[in-house]
Write a structure and sequence with these properties.
The complex is a heterodimer of chains A (about 250) and B (about 375).
Chain A lengths: L8 H19 L4 H14 L6 H10 L11 H6 L11 H28 L27 H19 L4 H14 L8 H7 L1 H8 L3 H27 L16 E2 L1
Helix pairs in contact in A: 1-2, 1-5, 2-6, 2-10, 3-10, 6-7, 6-10, 7-8, 8-9, 9-10
Chain B lengths: L2 H8 L5 H9 L9 H4 L7 H9 L15 H5 L15 E5 L6 H16 L2 E5 L14 E6 L4 E7 L7 E3 L1 H4 L5 E5 L2 H8 L4 E5 L8 H7 L23 H12 L5 E5 L17 H17 L2 E7 L7 H4 L4 E4 L32 E5 L4 E5 L9 E7 L2
Chain lengths: ~250, ~375
């Protein structure tokens, strides 16, 4: 049904993007890092309509169970079988993932749709096929280039953090990307504290696996909820821009 | 040391070896064609260009909209359907590097091929975008004025090479001198051939041609005459256009104005050189140009750099890649409407563009016309 021509392609694009993320979820993730990347994409593509609280809950999953070295239940369920450290039936994990979709993500999709429907532009093209307004040709998230720009900053900030920052002054550069990535929703002292506090700076720049683990938690617990709030703020201000990824037809040779 | 001497030392003379080494990198001039030899059994300049660059023959039927590109390119006194009569015109806008210069050269070949026109390219001391066509070029310089010539590498750290006028004929087919616009048009320019013309800083003949004109009379600037030796050299082009529309020859003629904003900028004002009056003169000549078979190929960075007086008369537009084409006529002087309702051009590649009129549009592409060297040729005409 959604493959049909639509006069309001932004709504179809939103739906397609979220269907892709649903499929990723149902298939399970290969690593904790993939989980973080997926939650980041989910934030932009739901236009920030997942509750920030949900991001905090996911963040808490990255704390691990004290003294056991195992992940918490939900995080285990998100990972595919051979990547889990906790005993869990595959069918149980699959069921948990589906419940997560049904009870949390599906309602966020509904809210995102309702938000976007107010602004989705109607395009009345001459022909129904081959139009550059066809939803599957659109390259921007929800046909809003500003959201793509935001996502680019989020990806960069996430990748740079998980890879570990070079040194203490790199924290300041990274802080600037983070400002963009959260659309200014960070607490005012955040970057200054990350720079000033010895222990935090050590986590952000450390080479050992404990620091790498701590950085995952740092993102999931402190940044992801803020980033989600930033998406929500920006999504209400964006405007639509059709941009077909493919040309309609080759230009004629002069 | 005076500043003149100092300038002399930083622009040192080049040795014979340096000059030869630079010139050797150019394609040798083509002197075996119909236009160069007068022998009609030989192939034409246009054929020779097409073979060299691998350009296929012109094919009108390839286009979806005959009213856009074929109507612009093919000149007719008795056109098919409701296509336009006489000379045509376009304004192509785009940023540097968007392919304007290559497109300009490509249109020269098509124009020679299709219309056997007299083709003129505005020469300028700072630019030489016509160099891909150098082997077929007849270079026209004003008579009895000193000329300084340098080859500058794109890499500015490389020393530039000073050339003699005689060296030019190792790069272009022929260097010819003209005395005034009428002499140039009637006795120097050749049909089916490509000319790069450098303006005469003395404006010889321009005031006389203007005084001969019955219809086109404008307020004289304070000094009393419209054309004067003290004018910026660019003003010579107004004299040339006037001479062409009033005195012929009335064979198809095409004038390529690279950077038209240099000649009629948006900010043109009444000044001691009569700049505003000359822009009016160009505007008034535009209608005569069409009727007398004179075509203008204009290139510029942006619509708004160019005087409304010129833009209002231009019937075809080309949007180069990298910027969005207009989707409303509000900023297009002289256009009541545009047919595009979305951005087709900003994601296009170099070598593609969109041509449009008030009634239609068509995307088109052309192949590159590379040169084996990366020199710029800077020809300065002195007084």
């Amino acid at each position: 049904m959604t493959d049909q021509h639509s006069n309001r392609p932004a709504l179809i694009k939103l739906t397609h993007d979220l269907e892709e993320l649903r499929d990723d979820l149902l298939a399970g993730f290969e690593s904790r890092r993939e989980v973080l990347e997926w939650t980041q994409q989910l934030s932009v593509r739901t236009l920030g309509q997942l509750p920030d609280r949900w991001y905090s809950e996911i963040g808490a999953q990255f704390r691990g169970v004290p003294d056991s070295g195992k992940e918490r239940t939900l995080l285990s369920a998100l990972l595919i079988g051979r990547k889990r450290t906790r005993d869990m039936e595959d069918s149980t994990a699959a069921e948990l993932r589906e419940r997560l979709y049904a009870l949390t993500i599906r309602p966020a999709y509904h809210r995102a749709f309702r938000q976007l429907r107010a602004d989705a532009t109607e395009y009345l093209d001459d022909t129904e096929t081959d139009s550059q307004h066809t939803a599957d040709r659109q390259k921007w998230i929800a046909m809003r280039p500003a959201l793509d720009e935001l996502e680019e900053y989020q990806r960069t900030a996430l990748t740079d953090l998980l890879d570990g920052l070079e040194d203490r002054s790199a924290i300041l550069d990274w802080g600037n990307d983070l400002e963009q990535a959260t659309h200014g929703e960070l607490p005012g002292e955040f970057v200054a504290r990350a720079y000033r506090e010895e222990s935090t700076a050590r986590v952000l720049t450390g080479d050992d696996s404990a620091a790498a683990r701590a950085r995952e938690l740092f993102w999931a617990d402190l940044i992801a909820p803020t980033m989600n709030a930033g998406v929500r703020d920006l999504a209400g201000r964006t405007s639509e821009q059709p941009d077909a990824e493919k040309q309609e037809s080759a230009p004629t040779q002069l | 040391m005076s500043i003149k001497e100092r300038l002399q030392t930083v622009r040192s003379e080049s040795s014979r070896e340096q000059r030869e080494e630079a010139i050797e990198q150019f394609e040798p001039p083509r002197r075996d064609t119909q236009q160069a030899t007068g022998d009609t059994r030989r192939h034409t300049d246009a054929d020779s260009m097409r073979r060299h660059f691998g350009i296929p023959q012109w094919d009108r039927s390839a286009f979806d909209w005959q009213g856009v590109i074929p109507n612009y390119l093919e000149k007719h006194w008795d056109p098919p359907g409701d296509e336009s009569v006489g000379g045509t015109d376009f304004l192509a806008t785009g940023k540097p590097g968007s392919g304007k210069s290559t497109l300009g050269c490509y249109f020269v070949e098509r124009d020679l091929e299709v219309n056997q026109s007299i083709n003129i390219w505005r020469g300028s001391s700072s630019r030489s975008e016509w160099l891909p066509l150098a082997p077929w070029t007849r270079l026209c310089l004003p008579a009895n004025v000193p000329v300084s010539i340098r080859l500058e590498s794109k890499d500015k750290r490389e020393p530039s090479v000073a050339l003699d006028v005689d060296d030019l004929e190792k790069i272009v087919r022929e260097v010819v001198r003209y005395e005034d616009p009428v002499h140039l048009l009637h006795d120097v320019l050749q049909e089916s051939a490509f000319h790069v013309v450098y303006p005469d800083p003395h404006m010889r003949g321009c005031q006389a041609i203007y005084e001969e004109s019955d219809e086109k009379q404008y307020d004289a600037p304070s000094r009393g005459q419209l054309f004067h030796e003290s004018d910026p050299a660019n003003h010579w082009w107004f004299g040339l256009v006037l001479a062409r529309v009033e005195h012929g020859p009335f064979h198809w003629t095409t004038l390529t104005l690279d950077e038209i904003g240099d000649i009629v900028s948006q900010s043109v004002q009444k000044d001691e050189f009569g700049s505003y009056q000359k822009a009016e003169l160009l505007r008034d000549s535009w209608v005569d140009a069409r009727k007398t078979g004179l075509t203008f190929n204009c290139f510029g960075h942006d619509e708004v750099d160019i005087s409304d007086m010129a833009r209002r008369k231009i019937r075809w537009r080309i949007q180069m890649p990298g910027q969005a084409n207009p989707t409303s006529a509000s900023k297009l002087v002289g256009f009541g409407e545009v047919e595009m309702n979305s951005d087709l051009t900003s994601s296009m590649n170099v070598g593609e563009a969109l041509m449009y009129t008030e009634t239609n549009f068509e995307k088109f592409a052309w192949s590159d016309m590379p040169t084996p060297h990366s020199y710029k040729l800077k020809i300065k005409v002195g007084r």
